[in-house]
């Protein structure tokens, strides 16, 4: 995502969406990194159904509109399944 403008409303919305994802939609992890006006966010979920339900929530719908009109000049969303994961 490329930022157009970031303000306090953006940060409040991001915090509210994270809380909603964890509390109501079985999100397992939600990580964001931003640098030089760009942001990458990774989120991990129990199921595709949980992602779809979160995406349809009224608060998330509002955030989508604000993202397109106020906060982002460009963005993309990719959904992938992890077939294997390990760490040391």
Annotation keywords:
25% strand; alpha+beta; 45% helix; globular; 88 residues
Task: Walk me through what this model shows.
The protein is globular. It has helices spanning 8-24, 48-56, 58-71, and strands at 2-3, 27-35, 38-45, 72-74. The strands form two sheets. The protein has a two-stranded antiparallel ribbon with strand order 1-4. Strands 2-3 form a two-stranded antiparallel ribbon. It has three helices and four strands. Helix 1 (8-24) runs antiparallel to helix 3. It is of the alpha+beta class and 88 residues long. The longest helix is centred in the first third of the chain and has 17 residues, at 8-24.
How do the helices and strands line up, and which of them pair or pack?
Blueprint lengths: L1 E2 L4 H17 L2 E9 L2 E8 L2 H9 L1 H14 E3 L14
Antiparallel strand pairs: 1-4, 2-3
